[in-house]
Specification:
The protein starts with 16 loop residues before the first helix and ends in a 5-residue tail after the last helix. It has 3 helices and 3 strands; from the N terminus they run αββαβα. With 128 residues, it is α+β, with helices and mostly antiparallel strands. The longest helix is centred in the first third of the chain and has 22 residues. It is globular, with a radius of gyration of 16 Å.
Length: 128
Amino acid sequence: MVPLLQMNKTQIDRSNIEAHMISAAIAAYQFNNNKRQEKGLHPLDAMTIPCVTMVGTRPTFYLVPVTKALSDAVISCQYPSARTEVLKCEVASDCKGGMEAPEYRLVALQYYVAFKSLAKSHWEKFIP
């Protein structure tokens, strides 16, 4: 099972990083359901995939809800019939830099710790 999505694609245009992250979350949903079926479990109708993107050294945290309807729409190259709302959290800071600034680093690491607990609460729903 893929509980957390990690991307390391330095060539991605920064303006499209969220589109790539969402497509990878849909792929994680499909992968997880395939693994569930291989184990004799029923596929889930929905999963919320926790994701983190990095632009430079600044993280952004997401919860991406992926449904069977969304996955099926992507597979069939159709526009989804229902709207998907992704939750996004950026580290709030007055610092201009990223992790190289100690004050930003402290705040960002607090966000990581909080996100780890939040992500785990979503993983436990679909990892047998």
